[in-house]
């Protein structure tokens, strides 16, 4: 009976050692998983911090771009007003030139008519001269 108990005790010891080894292996596996998860968490935190910095930088850039856009919009409006003013001035000058040109053209036409009249008179005088020379 003692041998049986000793054998059973030995089997229990072996069984407990195996369970202890299994528990140790499980603990090591859990520790490895914990280390991996810790590394992932640290990496995720670093990534989140970088993304927060990048987001803050992008927010500043966005604000700067909005300010620049508004400045350009105001500048464009001012430029457009200047262009409109220049166009109005050019139109006024063009209308003045047209009016003066019309007056000059009228004077030229009147002068041309006067010249035509003089030419007609000179032709008439020429005919009188010819008639007078033939009629002597």
Automatic annotation (TrEMBL):
InterPro entries, A to Z: ENTR1
GO BP annotations, alphabetical order: positive regulation of cilium assembly; positive regulation of protein localization to cilium; regulation of cytokinesis
Top-level taxon of the source organism: Eukaryota
Keyword Protease included in the entry's annotation: no
UniProt keyword annotation of Coiled coil present: yes
Coiled coil start-end: 2-75
UniProt KW keywords: Coiled coil
GO cellular component labels: centrosome; ciliary basal body; early endosome; midbody; recycling endosome
Protein family membership: Belongs to the ENTR1 family.
Protein name, as recorded: Endosome-associated-trafficking regulator 1
Organism: Semnornis frantzii
């Amino acid at each position: 009976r003692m041998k049986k108990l000793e054998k059973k005790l030995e089997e229990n010891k072996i069984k407990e050692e195996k369970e202890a080894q299994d528990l140790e292996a499980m603990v090591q596996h859990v520790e490895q998983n914990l280390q991996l998860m810790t590394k992932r968490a640290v990496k995720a935190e670093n990534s989140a911090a970088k993304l927060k910095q990048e987001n803050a930088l992008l927010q500043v850039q966005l604000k700067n771009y909005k300010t620049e856009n508004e400045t350009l919009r105001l500048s464009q409006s001012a430029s457009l007003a200047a262009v409109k003013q220049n166009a109005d001035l050019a139109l006024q000058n063009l209308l003045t030139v047209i009016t003066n040109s019309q007056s000059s053209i009228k004077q030229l036409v009147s002068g041309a008519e006067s010249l035509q009249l003089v030419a007609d008179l000179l032709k008439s005088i020429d005919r009188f001269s010819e008639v007078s020379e033939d009629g002597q």
